[in-house]
DNA sequence: TGTAGGTTTGTGTGCGGACACATTGTAGAA
DNA sequence: TTCTACAATGTGTCCGCACACAAACCTACA
């Protein structure tokens, strides 16, 4: 089909018996057009199935679009470091195009810094924003401003549906917990006590972690795996020394033989304890390919990791925005990443493979 | 960095005190240039770090690049059907650009058809080719022609290093076997007999399947899992009735409790036997998210699948070619895909997630 | 009937680069 | 010295679209 040359605006103009400017006007809904002209142009457009040449379009409008990416400071946390890498990659990939991509970092541990950075972002006057909305309330305030200003935004990592972003990129947390449960169940010997460890530093994480836990527990009940006893423990904040002791306490007191850690950072913190006290025989399931997690997986302390792919999430977020601005391509409302199961044998294939 | 406007050819020309045509000549190595002019231009290029505006470039040269994709007929096999889908997706994605992507299908079961199709591909006069080189010798002959004509090509799915393609896209088969072994080992109860089933219809597959088997066996020996006994069986071709009986024979005679199937189609064929004769308690590890495999995974007959991602492989192959032709971007020499472990709990997240 | 003021339509240039074609420069032959 | 042949360089147009600006067309009012 369509072995023909692509239809150009000029062709439409000729067919409709008007000038290119008129066609341009109906295409972009700018300026006023007479009923007759509108109809003629519309007819021609439909008949030909005109599609604009995006290459020529972006070249013609010399506009440079501005994209702001807001994430927690990569220097403070390896998980966000990977997100940062994804944004950097996107920056490189799109460097040839008329887009300016700028990163803005806030402090993962300070809500106030989010507000400050949000202010900076607004000063940057972005045409759209990619954002990891870690701080719920602060984010909502920010969204109000953005909506008012008509600046579209994409969320990733953490979803806030009521924010009505043009797209959310992340994972199904409930299902993620089920996968963790599944891996733990296949690896553990039947009867046994399982500990779900929530190790986090920021309260608002709690909601999300509970979602994982719900999936985790549901898996066991759905499959009637009653030989396993599940107990969950919160470590809201941790001081290195105390943390070790407390975790060890729990493991010994409740004679735990399997652990599910709901956070990426928590994964290696828990692994460190198992490693330090020679408890490698416990089955440990955690999250993400952080440097330390990789290490403990090679060492056999961590058995499975579920990959949230922070790098790819961020990369895709920026790419969606570029396509949205430059090529008027609407991103999917929600893009749920696959729940990748990482093991000792396939981990390398994940580390070395590109981002595509 | 580079808060400045992008450097244009015009700027370079001014800096070097020559015309844009001269700059164009050195950039494209066409026409003759004096030593002096060359030097001046080169200096300016280096000093400014000039990067061509690819948008303008593709618009300017009105050339339409032709890409041929050669794969086994999607209608005959669900695996290749997915590859076809990947090519189709790429076609849509790049439809706006100056590329014409054409698919050519050969019969998976007839070497002669490959030759015929190769002839057609040449007639199409492609600027480059994406190819799944299923038939080794026939492919080699074809490569000779392509090299002579100077037509670059990318291979996917099956590698033929001596063909020296500009890129290979696929998986590490050896490691793939190891992952299969790992999953089987975590799921099976200790002592047990394992069957490695090679179910294929084309001989040349054998080499690749042996590579998977090697990885599979190495995993067990490396981990000193001596409680498991591994036996491999070849089903070169199969007639439905006979196949069932033979497989059943093997399973009963050697009291098999775990199965590793090295092919995607073989996976559901084996699963069908287990299903039919009520042998769901056997652990089965196979390949790929084929329709029937998905079904048997939901039903609990197949325990793990390793995803080779045929759709994405093909999609990426075409995309690499487009970038290579249009934007002069060199693809990686080898792109090894992650060895994705699919389970009952994460399978949906794979089915519903996009291609990115 | 002339004209101000708004509405509708058209013309022309620029975006950055590719490339056909024109022009200038230069060395050797006549 | 003049002419030829080719090497070296330059000019101008086009790619398809966006958009500023100009022109033509109406309508209503004096």
TrEMBL record, chains A, B:
GO terms for molecular function: DNA-binding transcription factor activity; transcription cis-regulatory region binding. Keywords: DNA-binding, Transcription, Transcription regulation. Residues 7-61 form the HTH lacI-type domain. The keyword Ion transport does not apply. Pfam families: LacI, Peripla_BP_4. InterPro entries: HTH_LacI (IPR000843), Lambda_DNA-bd_dom_sf (IPR010982), Peripla_BP_I (IPR028082), SBP_2_dom (IPR025997). It comes from the Bacteria. Gene3D superfamilies: 3.40.50.2300, lambda repressor-like DNA-binding domains (1.10.260.40). Transmembrane segments: none annotated. The keyword DNA-binding applies. This is Substrate-binding domain-containing protein. It comes from Gaoshiqia sediminis.
């Amino acid at each position: 089909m369509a072995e023909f040359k692509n239809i150009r605006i000029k062709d439409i103009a000729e067919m409709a018996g008007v000038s290119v400017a008129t066609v341009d006007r109906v295409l972009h809904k700018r300026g006023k057009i007479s009923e007759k002209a509108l109809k003629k142009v519309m007819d021609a457009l439909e008949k030909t199935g005109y599609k604009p040449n995006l290459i020529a379009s972006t070249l013609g409008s010399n506009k440079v679009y501005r994209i702001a990416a807001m994430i927690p400071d990569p220097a403070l946390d390896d998980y966000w470091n990977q997100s940062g890498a994804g944004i950097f990659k996107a920056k490189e990939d799109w460097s040839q195009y008329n887009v300016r991509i700028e990163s803005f970092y806030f402090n993962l541990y300070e809500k106030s810094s989010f507000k400050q950075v949000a202010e900076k972002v607004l000063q940057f006057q972005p045409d759209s924003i990619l954002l990891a909305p870690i701080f719920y309330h602060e984010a909502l305030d920010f969204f109000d401003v953005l909506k008012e200003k008509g600046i579209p935004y994409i969320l990733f990592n953490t979803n806030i549906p009521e924010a009505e972003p043009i797209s959310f990129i992340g994972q199904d947390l409930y299902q993620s917990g089920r996968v963790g449960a599944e891996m733990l169940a296949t690896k553990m010997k039947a009867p046994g006590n399982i500990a779900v460890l929530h190790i986090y530093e920021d309260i608002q994480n709690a909601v999300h972690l509970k979602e994982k836990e719900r999936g985790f527990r549901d898996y066991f009940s759905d499959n009637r795996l009653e030989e396993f006893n599940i107990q969950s423990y919160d470590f809201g904040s941790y001081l290195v020394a105390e943390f070790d002791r407390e975790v060890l306490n729990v493991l010994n007191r409740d004679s735990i033989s399997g652990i599910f850690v709901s956070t990426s950072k928590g994964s290696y913190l828990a692994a460190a304890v198992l490693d330090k006290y020679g408890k490698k025989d416990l089955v440990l399931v955690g999250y993400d390919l952080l440097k330390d997690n990789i290490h403990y997986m090679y060492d056999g302390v961590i058995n499975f990791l579920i990959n949230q792919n922070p790098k790819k999430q961020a990369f895709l977020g920026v790419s969606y925005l570029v396509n949205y601005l430059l090529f008027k391509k609407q991103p999917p409302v929600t893009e749920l990443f696959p729940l990748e199961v990482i093991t000792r044998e396939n981990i390398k294939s994940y580390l070395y493979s590109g981002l595509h």
